[in-house]
Design goal:
Bound molecules: zinc ion
Structural class: mainly alpha
Radius of gyration: 14 Å
Helix content: over 70%
Shape: flat
Length: 78
């Protein structure tokens, strides 16, 4: 697996995270996530983060959850 940042698919995966892709494009994005080590790690974290952000609108994030998130973020940046 390459650790080289993957720029070509950034736009596709941003739309994927936003839920703005057509069914066929979602499949394409998910295939890319399986095949690309960088995107797999990067966008898996992004999806988690967005899930937490949505939750944070209605309720505060428990301290243990935000420290888990911080640990995950520092792993992703390595
Ligand atoms: Zn990629």
């Amino acid at each position: 697996m390459s650790e080289t940042p993957c720029r070509g698919c950034e736009e596709l995966l941003e739309l994927y995270l936003d839920g703005e892709l057509a069914e066929e494009e979602v499949r394409e994005a998910e295939e890319h996530l399986d095949a690309c080590g960088f995107c797999h790690r990067h966008y898996r974290f992004e999806r988690l983060l967005r899930a937490y952000m949505r939750q944070a609108i209605s309720e505060p994030i428990p301290p243990e959850l935000s420290s888990k998130l911080a640990a995950l973020a520092s792993k992703t940046e390595q």
